[in-house]
């Protein structure tokens, strides 16, 4: 039985001394109020009202049960109020700071149209992980290897001048002994993760580049500025290259992929972000969406 509904009818009728007025105050038909109170009497094992009079008069048993019924109704109303507040509370989501403001705004709009409010926090990978560990956010978009990625984008090298070749080989950055200018490859913070950085560093060492020719930048902005002002190269996705007016090419020696998935305190939050916001997040990342994730 619906004990909360029955207690609500019981309290309402007792306060007004009438089944008709009590049912109207509880916003239910009078026969429904009568059935609920009768079910509550059967459940509790005693009569709550004296039905020998025209008014709804409480029995001694009914007077004893009324305070508990009131507390239960008040608690149920408080719970309903808390539930409404919880549904209106925004989901704090940590996202990569490489996302364009326009795309994040569209992501927020997509969420609102599905009844979900977002509180977006832009941060580099390490900071996003810390925000999630310290429970300052409910979920975070985190970098993962391609095999575990929900969203992925190819990584290549982008330059200010359009290359003649369709593929850029890192070994061509070696230069000659008399060449004082050695071109560099800049890794932005979003790709400063082992499954990207370490693989690229191994290629650097294999082809004989100097250590400083493949380096991690302090920010995407500083890396882009270096590339725009020189012949250096930026490790980035095609979408980023287009946004920065750079010319993107794949890497000849290695295939690199930037992968992301969502991490959260609960599996329900993970699925909620994946299913409700997946397309919008892919747009923010300039990535493709994978229907299934393997790991």
From TrEMBL:
Keyword match Transcription: yes
Residue ranges occupied by any HTH lysR-type domain in the UniProt entry: 1-59
Keyword Transcription: yes
Pfam families in the cross-refs: HTH_1
Record keywords, A-Z: Transcription, Transcription regulation
InterPro entries: LysR_HTH_N, WH-like_DNA-bd_sf, WH_DNA-bd_sf
Family: Belongs to the LysR transcriptional regulatory family.
Protein name: LysR family transcriptional regulator
Native source species: Marinactinospora rubrisoli
Lineage: Bacteria, Bacillati, Actinomycetota, Actinomycetes, Streptosporangiales
């Amino acid at each position: 039985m619906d004990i909360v509904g029955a207690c609500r009818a019981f309290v309402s009728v007792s306060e007004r001394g009438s089944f008709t007025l009590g049912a109207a105050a509880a916003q239910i038909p009078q026969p429904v109020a009568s059935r609920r109170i009768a079910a509550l009497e059967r459940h509790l094992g005693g009569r709550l009202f004296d039905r020998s009079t025209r008014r709804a008069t409480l029995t001694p048993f009914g007077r004893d049960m009324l305070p508990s019924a009131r507390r239960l109704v008040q608690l149920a109303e408080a719970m309903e109020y808390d539930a409404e507040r919880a549904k209106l509370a925004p989901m704090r989501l940590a996202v990569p700071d490489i996302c364009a403001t326009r795309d994040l705004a569209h992501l927020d709009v997509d969420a609102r149209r599905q009844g979900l409010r977002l509180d977006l926090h832009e941060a580099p990978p390490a900071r996003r992980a810390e925000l999630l560990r310290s429970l300052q956010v409910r979920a975070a978009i985190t970098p993962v290897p391609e095999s575990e990625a929900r969203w992925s984008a190819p990584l290549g090298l982008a330059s200010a001048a359009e290359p003649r070749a369709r593929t850029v080989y890192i070994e061509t950055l070696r230069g000659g002994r008399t060449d004082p200018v050695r071109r560099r490859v800049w890794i932005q913070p979003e790709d400063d993760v082992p499954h990207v950085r370490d693989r690229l560093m191994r290629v650097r060492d294999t082809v004989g580049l100097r250590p400083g020719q493949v380096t991690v930048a302090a920010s995407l902005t500083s890396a882009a500025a270096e590339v725009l002002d020189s012949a250096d190269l930026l490790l980035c996705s095609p979408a980023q290259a287009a946004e920065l007016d750079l010319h993107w090419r794949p890497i000849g020696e290695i295939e690199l992929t930037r992968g992301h998935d969502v991490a959260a305190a609960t599996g329900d939050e993970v699925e909620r972000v994946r299913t409700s916001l997946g397309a919008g997040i892919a747009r923010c990342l300039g990535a493709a969406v994978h229907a299934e994730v393997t790991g």
